[in-house]
Specification:
mainly beta, Immunoglobulin-like, 5-stranded mixed β-sheet, 2 helices, PorZ_N, PorZ N-terminal beta-propeller domain-containing protein, WD40/YVTN_repeat-like_dom_sf, signal
Length: 755
């Protein structure tokens, strides 16, 4: 039986993961833990490193715990990992060259990896090997020694000859000697004063070698052969392999992971046994005479081919997300480049991921075949919730719209139909995104619809004929974004022209009497904009339009767009100077929460949480100050019932538990936190959530004196614990008296303050 435990109490009880510096209890990851890059065993427990996090699998109990940027790590894109079970210290290396040191006292972030003068190559950590309190770190310029006690780098050996750097693919330490495999041979050097001088290194064996490990001996490999250090002499195993992925020295065993097969040898080179895994694996180890593999797509696998991993999407690649039916999710994995025109080629060829409320499901349809997919959107049929449509934007044969049927028994999707949209050529009529109107009619936007590729289009799904009917917009704008339906109109950004379109289909799906309203720079869009990218309609009926050069607002949008619409920027004052908010910034996504506040994603700038009018920044999340995997968030969705915010990136998904959920004219479940407020432990503001859309707040002391009053309009309120004179209140019990706008609903709460 497999148990997934992610509570902080359970994590704190573990030897390895008890060191987390919890970023915030409000954050969680929705990462894929399928691709296991490295594993270490600690007394019957396996610690596995994956692309975006680490998980800890207890063989005897089946318990699984995970550690990621959402609860302690500082980065994503892990590229190397090792762990010493004796000292309980782990070292995580990332593609950007940084390191996390995990020990029983916490997690330390190390960013100052030594770089050779004149080296301009990749900073990626290729490999880490720990021996005692030292680790040898392999990078593109050679090797560096890291002191795990001091948490700092020592000597580095830059593998440079004739001005050309040689990468250390992997390296290890045995008996105070460093062994490094490179594309130019096995190189060695004692840890002494001449270690940094590359000319003093010895090339023990010429050749191109990829993997190495040591414990009681050294084993290293090329892609097809393994050599062992036996009686101070390297001996080649008699077996020739297909494509070696990893070599592990584990106690009295040498374990070789060779694509889908794992072989175990004694320290003298005798074959102990082999196991066929049935899929590609990255690494393997032997524990209590049993083989465990780290696979590319299934987490950890044992000899019986049972899998063990935290549940999550199949890959981390993500683009857009839909929330529906009580905690169900659909994630599309596509990507766009070249001004939202081209389809980014992804060698993993992902499709979409479906969370049914209990587990993540990846259609087997995407696991086989040669068809290329670039899925920009997926949506269930609102009148038949077993049918699902997805768009394939790929610039090759097979782009179009697909229909699959969900099989709840098999937890899989079956192919039903492909709609080619009567494409004029293999690169035209590429579908982007879906939207339903208020009569449950399904529409899709189409890029590059005409033979010249100069106009976008809209497509209507005709249920009677089971066809998608295409209507060209007949405008000089080829690319298009996902549409938004509001007040009988489709609101459509056009990313390759300085235009925004509102499409009135007159509630006649045949699209014969439609009317187009175009907003461009003559209506106030930024004159330097090359396209509109995003749109949201807030609770006041205002349209927030994101362009690649800033943000614009259209008040009373549904009515104003039909006359002479004028969009306006938000102007804020900074140090007495008026400035346009997000001027010249690319606005990737806009989302409105239940309190009418705005989440806005800026390409390269993270995510801003703004007040309802946009004039106040409430929060600003970046990859530097939050668990966001990257500063370019491609989609944001708020679960209006719970207030949970989903941030989607090409490097994975994280969620943030917001304070605004299901805001109505009456009170919800009013909650005050933290409570009690102990100054020595907490110096921030007290949050009161579960409020009405407009809440009149009075806070009194025990004697009934009013110490603070306010009006909250966002479903929650933050009190800074100051009285009406601006000074902090004294220790004591305070009463929060609240009424909604018309006084028809009331709520009360207590706050204990300890200074």
């Amino acid at each position: 039986m497999k148990k997934l435990l992610i509570s902080l109490g359970v994590l704190a009880s573990l030897h390895f993961i008890n060191a987390q510096n919890i970023t915030s209890k409000k954050w969680q990851d929705i990462f894929s833990y399928n691709n296991v890059l490295a594993m270490k065993e600690d007394n019957g427990k396996i610690i596995a490193a994956t692309e975006n996090g680490i998980f800890y699998y207890n063989i005897s109990t089946g318990e699984i715990n995970k550690l990621s940027k959402a609860n302690g790590l500082h980065e994503v894109k892990i590229s190397a990992f090792d762990y010493n079970p004796q000292t309980k210290i782990g070292l995580v290396g990332y593609q950007n060259g940084s390191l996390d040191v995990i020990d029983p006292n916490g997690i330390t972030y190390v960013v100052d990896i030594p770089i050779a003068t004149g080296y301009n190559g990749s900073k990626k950590i290729n490999h880490i090997s720990i021996t005692g309190d030292k680790a040898v770190v392999s990078v593109g310029y050679g090797v560096s020694i890291f002191d795990l006690k001091k948490k700092e780098f020592g000597d580095s050996a830059f593998f440079v000859s004739g001005g050309v750097y040689q990468a250390s693919n992997e390296a290890t330490i045995l008996n105070n000697k460093v062994y490094s495999v490179t594309n130019n041979g096995l190189k060695t050097h004692d840890l002494n004063t001449t270690f940094p001088v590359f000319s003093t290194w010895t090339t023990e064996i010429p050749g191109a070698f990829t993997d190495i490990d040591s414990e009681s001996t050294v084993a290293f490999s090329s892609s097809t052969n393994v050599q062992l250090l036996i009686n101070n002499t390297f001996t080649t195993l008699p077996q020739t392999f297909t494509n070696i992925q990893d070599v592990v020295v584990n106690g009295d065993n040498i374990v070789v992971a060779d694509i889908q097969n794992v072989y175990s040898y004694s320290l003298t080179g005798g074959l102990i046994g082999n196991v066929s895994i049935g899929e590609e694996c990255n690494t393997a180890t032997r524990i209590n005479s049993k083989i465990y593999t780290g696979t590319k797509l299934s987490g950890i696998k044992n000899e019986e081919r049972n899998t063990f991993k935290p549940d999550g999407p199949y890959f981390n690649d993500s683009y857009k997300i839909r929330i529906f039916n009580e905690n169900q999710l659909l994630v599309s994995s596509g990507a766009r480049i070249d001004g939202f025109n081209g389809a980014a080629d992804n060698p993993k060829n992902p499709g979409f991921y479906y969370f049914d409320g209990m587990q993540w499901i990846y259609p087997s349809y995407f696991k086989s075949g040669t068809m290329k997919f670039n899925v920009l959107d997926a949506i269930f049929d609102q009148t038949n919730n077993t049918d699902l449509f997805f768009t394939n934007y790929n610039v090759s044969t097979g782009h179009g719209i697909y229909k699959l049927k969900y099989n709840s028994t098999l937890k899989d999707f079956d192919f039903t139909k492909y709609y080619d949209l009567d494409e004029p050529s293999i690169w035209l009529r590429r579908p982007v995104g879906f939207a339903y109107d208020d009569l449950n009619n399904l529409f899709a936007t189409i890029g590059f619809s005409t033979a010249q590729g100069t106009s976008a289009a809209i497509s209507y799904y005709d249920k009677a004929t089971d066809q998608f009917l295409v209507k060209n917009f007949d405008i000089t704008s080829s690319a298009v974004q996902q549409p938004l339906f509001y007040q009988g109109l489709f609101w459509i950004p056009l990313p390759r022209s300085n235009d925004f379109m509102v499409y009135d289909y007159k509630k006649t799906p045949d699209l014969t009497d439609d009317v187009k309203y175009i907003i461009n720079n003559s209506h106030g869009l930024p004159s330097n904009s090359g396209g509109t990218l995003s749109v949201a309609i807030d609770k006041s009926g205002d349209a927030w339009i994101g362009t690649d050069a800033g943000l614009r607002i259209l008040p009373n949008a549904a009515a104003e767009v039909k006359s002479n619409p004028q969009v306006e920027p938000i102007v804020i004052e900074q140090a007495g100077i008026a400035e346009e908010l997000f001027k010249d910034s690319q606005i990737l996504q806009i989302e409105v929460d239940a309190g009418n506040q705005k989440w806005i994603s800026i390409d390269g700038g993270g995510v801003y949480y703004l007040s309802a009018n946009g004039e106040q920044t409430i929060k600003h999340f970046t990859k530097e100050n939050s668990p966001l995997p990257t500063n370019s968030v491609t989609d944001i969705k708020v679960d209006k019932k719970t207030g949970k915010v989903y941030f989607v990136t090409y490097d994975g998904i994280v969620t943030y538990q917001g304070d605004v959920g299901d805001v109505t004219s009456n009170f919800g479940n009013v909650l005050v936190y933290p409570n009690p407020v102990v100054y020595s432990n907490f110096k921030g503001k007290v949050t009161i959530k579960g409020l009405a859309e407009k809440t009149n707040i009075r806070i009194t002391d025990a004697a009934g004196n009013i110490v603070h009053s306010a009006v909250a309009r966002a479903g929650y309120y933050e009190w800074d614990l100051n009285n009406q004179r601006g000074t902090r209140v004294a220790s004591g019990i305070y009463f929060v008296l609240m009424t909604n706008e018309d006084g028809s609903d009331k709520a009360t709460a207590k706050i204990a303050v300890v200074n």
